[in-house]
Each structure stands twice: as C-alpha cells, then as structure tokens.
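Format notes (please read before filing issues)

Several people have asked whether sequences and structure tokens are stored in separate files. They are not. Every record keeps both together, in the order shown below: the sequence lines, then the token lines. Line labels are part of the format and must not be stripped during preprocessing.
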Amino acid sequence: MSMVKILLVEDHMVVRNGIKLLLESQEDFKVIGEASDGEEALLQLANNLNPDIILTDISMDNMDGMEMLKIVGQQYTSIKVVVLSMLNQIHYVIEGFEHGLSGYLLKNVDYNELLFGLRHVANGGKYMSVEISMSLLEKVSSGELFGEKRRFVTAKIEVSDREMEVLALIADGFTNIEIADKIFLSKRTVEGHRQSLIEKAQVKNTAELVKFAFQSGLLQ
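Then the structure lines:
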C-alpha cells in the first residue's frame, strides 16, 4: 500500500500528539500537517499542502470541522475528510455525509478500528464507527429519523393475528423450526405463513419483508 498522507486537525494538543504517534507508528501513514482549527487547516491547503485525508474533530474554535468540510468539498475535491469526534449525534453524521464526508469515528474507538477506518477511506470507501452504525440503524427502524416524511408504503396489507405473531418472530431472527416450537405449529404451517406474508407485502424475500414491516408500521 502506498503512503497515506494525513492532515490532523484537533484543538487539544495532547489528543493530537497521541493520534499522531499512533498514525506514525504505522508504515503506511504519514502526518504531513497539523492544525488546531478549520481556518488553520484551510490556510495550509492554500499553501499547497496536499494530504490524502484530513482527520478532524468537529468542535473547535474559529472554524469547526463541519464548516471546514463544506469548503474542502467545494474547493479540494480530491481530499477525503474523516471526522474523529466525541459527538455521537446522528444529525452531524447525516449532515457530514451529505457534504461529502468519507468517515465518522468516535474518539472512544479502539486503535484498530481507527486504523481500519482510515485505510478503508484511503482505498475509496466510506466508514462509520460500529457504535454510530448501530445507533443509526435503531433510529431508521423506529422511524425516528423520518418524522412526518415517513411515506414508504403505498398500500396497507391485511394480516391475521397468527401472521403477526410469525412476523414478529421472523423479525427477531428466529428460524421456521424455532418459530414452530415457540407457537406450537408445524414447520410447514410456519413456512406457509412466511410465504403468505411475502406475497401480501409484494416483496422478494424475508429480509425485504422485515424491512417492509418496520417501514409500514406493522412492527415497531
């Protein structure tokens, strides 16, 4: 792997030095610049510093990481930006990715996840901390992210009480045999209910059925 050049933007010097030591202990990373806020970072870019990745905090004086991201996204399109923050707030994550963010990691990640995320971004991918991904998934499945805009389903479907019981257990990850044991039905009957639900929802498979059930409000 070729050397990945990093501009480190962090207003706490102790934190910055710690991250720098970690990165430079790896053969494939080199910290080519440091800044304590977005303004300093942009000044370095204007003076022809050319990092592959900017690793930045969000909360900083003068210019925060989100403001800097927007400018970098407009003026320096080849540079990838990764946020490393204490802030586990989904609206920052969504806003960041809308403005071209390549990665969002929490400062409580372990070293291996940080290095993995940066390498993944350097190879052209996008990365979110596992903790953020799980939080985002919970909010999507509960419909919390969408509020009144939640308009996924074009038709309501009629579902029997027994089908609802089967559906809830499918969503919890149980197999046909496990469901049959739980609600005292034959495996074939459970398979029939599963297939009936798939047909009623007009989806292709079980995964899409579960997604439909949450989006339509059948399951909460």
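For reference, the curators noted about this record: The CA atoms of residues 156 and 216 lie 8 Å apart. The chain is about 50% helix and 15% strand.
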